[in-house]
Amino acid sequence: MRLKVFLPTEILVDEEVTKVIARAENGAFCLLPRHIDFVTALVPGILMFVNGEGEENFMAVDEGTLVKCGREVLVSTRNAVLGPVLGGLEQTIYKQFRTLDDREKAVQSAVAKLEANLVRRFMELK
């Protein structure tokens, strides 16, 4: 199978694999080359894949979409981090994804304040 992992700014992974294990809302699943085609929404977690040499690789993924079509497995996500060791990946995920969540909350708060201010000023014009 060919695994491709797409981020907004780059293609993080593009290689031949023999197995992919990921998590969706209803639990973990394993894809092998003859698996049926399907589409699923991924939840934040660990995606594991075995490359052509039999080496296990781990990747932390944020929410995203996985499409299995023929011999291709396509993953699209906003954030992903490759890590050779599962234990070290957990700390990286926590730091990187937590920082992004905090930034998103700050931006959402600022946008809400701007919207409220805009509505208040329109009301003052009447």
Automatic annotation (TrEMBL):
Its main location: membrane. GO terms for molecular function: proton-transporting ATP synthase activity, rotational mechanism. Keywords: ATP synthesis, CF(1), Ion transport, Membrane, Transport. It is a peripheral membrane protein. The keyword Protein biosynthesis does not apply. Belongs to the ATPase epsilon chain family. This is F0F1 ATP synthase subunit epsilon.
